[in-house]
Each structure stands twice: as structure tokens, then as C-alpha cells.
Design goal:
The protein has 453 residues and is an alpha/beta fold. Helices cover 45% and strands 15% of the residues. The chain is globular, with a radius of gyration of 23 Å. The structure holds pyridoxal-5'-phosphate (PLP). The site of pyridoxal-5'-phosphate has 13 residues, from helix 5. Pathway: One-carbon metabolism; tetrahydrofolate interconversion; Amino-acid biosynthesis; glycine biosynthesis; glycine from L-serine: step 1/1.
Length: 453
């Protein structure tokens, strides 16, 4: 930090402050974690200076022998850890991984004319018919993923997202009474819509998913099952999600981030069955810019950590702590979407019991040192900006060693803060969706306790 500070003191100070903030608040953002020192140090080194378009042993630049070593090691670790046929470890983020996966499936599955055989040497030689066929390869295909308000991710076909524009898109949701995925409804929708790609996985669904059943449903219409396990990759790596719940055993294509429950560096990966291997390896430069060798080195390190027996215990604790948190909230009167959790996520409905919007709850909690994010709940009356929910996740605090006692205390502090928060009125005298008031001294007192924890 002294070296950084000598050049850019503002940045050095912001880094110091970030560490201090992370140490003195409770990180309950479900997609965040604490990477190990070995992982962090693998990110900041000379690999960052190297260009290496292409893939292992097949580069568009000279001098990539050391990049080959770390990329191969990361891929091997991922394949071993998840039991995958083939791992592509270059994606810079989860969204990039999903784009590579969509491109891979489209390229592999949708036939295009053999333009070389037709003597086409440049785009200027393409006939109108060829253009039409090529357009069909991308713009005309169908995909189906989980809707955003049921807990899906933007890249699972949300209309304004590029995934919603690349495909004709339809989504499945959750049952309005139970909040759970209804596989019979999904099957009926898939039979009717006949997608090329069925996407499983979520960002805010607090339950496990039966991927064996999803594969059965996809197979009925010849769809490729793609699972985005970004959120729960750590629980798959830790062998908590096995059998029907193991996405790698059932989906042809699996994408993930490496920085959430997997506790690695920021980045993404795509795991595929053999038949997609050659296509996915062309992700760079067809979809992605040059790979970040420093990040691939850090992925290799974090994946090696996840192969240790202690990571299985970590995964069990993440889920066990989520149950403790959920029960702690419910016994104090809170309402949870689906009535509980069996993964790492707890989705708290702050409208029903506390009369707040997600925005108000998020702001009040952070004043008290509890870092969460507001989140839509199914059929949210407050829309996707203000929302009626708060999403809580246990991966980060579990990494800090929190167990049952600490998570019960966290549940108690959350309820205390939300019960002491009320809706303020706007200048027109109507209830505000953003402004709130909080009992005098409450935020400071809870903040002091979060620092102690
Ligand atoms: N997929 C899922 C399920 C996610 O929850 C997220 C991020 O929150 C992403 C993809 C995108 O990851 P990234 O932010 O690394 O692009």
C-alpha cells in the first residue's frame, strides 16, 4: 500500500478504508465472500501484463508458455472438482460466461451454410439467402429461463438484457402460494414453447433445484439444458448438492462465477460435455477479449482450495448457517419467501411484517453496519427499484467463522433494526418509498455490536 500510495494516495486510502469497512460491518450480500490471501496475491502480479488470445497450446501470440501452465491447471482443477468433461476458465465474469455459453450452444446446434464450400471469401460475397440463414442462427432461436422476479438473473432472458434480445424468450416462475418451482408447470411451458436452450439456476431463489428433472424436461423437446450455478457453485464444489441437485451431472453446459460461494477471484467459467468442448474453446476471441492470466492463476489457486476436505465442511456450514438465520428471523416474526431456505440464501419480505420497502430496509440496515441488498420478491408490489425484499446470504460470514450463535444474534439485530425503522412521508404528505426514520441511537448501538462480532 505504501508503493501504491506513493503514486496515488487516494487509491491507497480507499483500499485501506475498504478493508476497515469490511472488517467492521456484517457482509450479508449473498453473492460476496472473502477470498484467501493466496488467491488475492495470485491476482496482482506480472501475468497481468501478458496477452494470450486463443487457448492452451493454440495462441495468437508468442511467449504464452506460462499462461498455458496456469490456464491448464485451473481447467484441470475445475474438471476434477466438479467432475466435468471440459472446463473453459477464461470468462472475465459470470455474464461473460453466460454469453460464451449461449454462443457455444448456438454455434454447435444451429446449422449454417458451408460458406467456404460456396466460395464465399468475404461478407461482401454473401447472398441474401445466406444472410437470412445466418440471421436464423442467432435471432430466431428460443430460450427459457427463470423470470427475474422469481429469482432468475438478468442474463437468463430478461427482455432489456442482451440475452433477451438474442433470443425469442419466455420465462418460468414460481408457484404463487408456495414460492417454489413447479416442475409440472415448467414442463407444460417447455412443451408449448419448445426452446433450444432451457436455463436453470438463479440469483435469489432460496431453495434447491432438481436438475435431473429439468434435464428430463429439456430432453422431451430436444433443448440443451444450461445451468448457471454462479450463486451455489460452492455448495456443488463442497458436495452438498449431489444426485438430482448436481448441475454438472445433468446439464450439458454449466456456467458459474468463481467469486461468490466458491470463494475465488472475480471471474467466470464454463463447464461442458465433450461435444461442446471445441466450440467453447473458441470463446476468445469470438466472444471475449484476451484472457486475464492473473485471474486464471487465482482461479487455479481457489479451485485447489475448494478441493480440500475443509471446503466440504465450509459448504455444510454455509447452508446450516442459512437455516439458523432463517429460523432466527421467523421466530422473531419475520416473513420469508418460501418460508425458509435450503441453500445459502434467505429472502426476507420486509413489506409484510415491517411495512418497509426493500430500499428503506437496505438503507436502515447499512446505517447499523449490516450490509445487504434489496431484492424483488415474486409479484413485488414495489417493483424492481424499491422492491419489498432483502436478500441475505451466509457465504461471507461463514468464511469469517460465524456459526449458530453468531447467526442467531445477526437475525436478532436485523429484526431490531427493522422494527425500529418506520416509513417517512414525502413533501406531499404521502408515504415515501425511500425515506425512513430510525429510532434514536439504535443504528449506532447495533453498529457497535456488529464491530464486536
Ligand atoms: N449469473 C448469476 C446467477 C448471478 O447471480 C450473477 C451475478 O450476480 C451473474 C451471473 C453475473 O456475474 P458477474 O457479475 O460476474 O458478471
Amino acid at each position: 500500500l505504501n508503493v501504491i500510495g506513493a503514486t496515488e494516495p487516494t487509491v491507497a486510502q480507499a483500499i485501506r478504508q475498504e478493508l476497515a469497512d469490511q472488517r467492521t460491518s456484517l457482509k450479508l450480500i449473498a453473492s460476496e465472500n472473502y477470498a484467501s490471501l493466496a488467491t488475492l496475491l495470485s491476482m496482482g502480479n506480472w501475468f497481468s501484463d501478458k496477452y494470450a488470445e486463443g487457448t492452451i497450446g493454440h495462441r495468437f501470440y508468442a511467449g504464452c508458455q506460462n499462461v498455458d501452465t496456469v490456464e491448464a491447471e485451473a481447467a484441470r482443477n475445475a474438471e476434477e472438482l466438479f467432475g466435468a468433461d471440459h472446463a473453459y476458465v477464461q470468462p472475465h465474469s459470470g455474464i461473460d460466461a453466460n454469453l460464451v455459453a449461449y454462443w457455444t450452444i448456438l454455434t454447435h446446434r444451429v446449422e449454417t451454410p458451408d460458406l467456404e464450400a460456396k466460395g464465399v471469401r468475404s461478407v461482401n460475397d454473401l447472398s441474401e439467402d445466406d444472410w437470412e440463414t445466418l440471421r436464423h442462427q442467432f435471432g430466431d432461436q428460443r430460450m427459457m429461463g427463470m423470470s427475474l422476479d422469481a429469482g432468475g438473473h438478468l442474463t437468463h432472458g430478461f427482455r432489456p438484457n442482451i440475452s433477451g434480445r438474442m433470443f425469442h424468450q419466455h420465462s418460468y416462475g414460481t408457484d404463487p402460494t408456495t414460492g417454489l418451482i413447479d416442475y409440472d408447470v415448467m414442463r407444460a411451458q417447455v412443451r408449448e414453447f419448445k426452446p433450444l436452450i432451457l436455463v436453470g439456476g438463479y440469483s435469489a431463489y432460496p431453495r434447491r433445484v432438481n436438475f435431473a428433472k429439468m434435464r428430463e424436461i429439456a430432453d422431451e423437446v430436444g433443448a440443451t439444458l444450461m445451468v448457471d450455478m454462479a450463486h451455489f457453485a460452492g455448495l456443488v464444489a463442497g458436495k452438498l448438492f449431489t444426485g438430482d441437485e448436481d448441475p454438472v451431472a445433468h446439464a450439458q453446459v454449466v456456467t458459474t462465477t468463481t467469486h461468490k460461494s466458491l470463494r475465488g477471484p472475480r471471474g467466470g467459467m464454463v463447464l461442458v460435455e465433450h461435444e461442446f468442448a471445441d466450440d467453447v474453446d473458441r470463446g476468445c476471441p469470438m466472444v471475449l477479449g484476451g484472457p486475464l492470466a492473473n485471474m486464471m492463476a487465482a482461479k487455479a489457486v481457489a479451485l485447489a482450495e475448494a478441493k480440500q476436505p475443509s471446503f466440504r465442511e465450509y459448504a455444510r456450514n454455509v447452508a446450516g448457517n442459512a437455516k439458523t438465520l432463517a429460523e432466527g428471523l421467523m421466530k422473531r416474526g419475520a416473513t420469508l419467501v418460501t418460508g425458509g431456505t435450503d441453500n445459502h440464501i434467505v429472502l426476507l419480505d420486509v413489506g409484510s411484517n415491517f411495512g418497509l420497502t426493500g430500499r428503506q430496509a437496505e438503507s436502515a440496515l447499512i446505517e447499523a453496519g449490516i450490509v445487504t441488498n434489496r431484492n424483488s420478491i415474486p409479484a413485488d408490489p414495489n417493483g424492481s427499484w424499491y422492491t419489498s425484499g432483502i436478500r441475505l446470504g451466509t457465504p461471507a460470514l461463514t468464511s469469517r467463522g460465524f456459526g449458530t450463535d453468531e447467526f442467531d444474534r445477526v437475525a436478532s439485530l436485523i429484526c431490531e433494526v427493522l422494527s425500529g425503522t418506520s416509513v417517512a412521508t414525502t413533501a406531499k404528505g404521502t408515504p415515501s418509498k425511500a425515506k425512513y426514520t430510525i429510532t434514536d441511537g439504535l443504528a449506532a448501538r447495533v453498529h457497535a455490536e456488529t464491530e464486536e462480532l
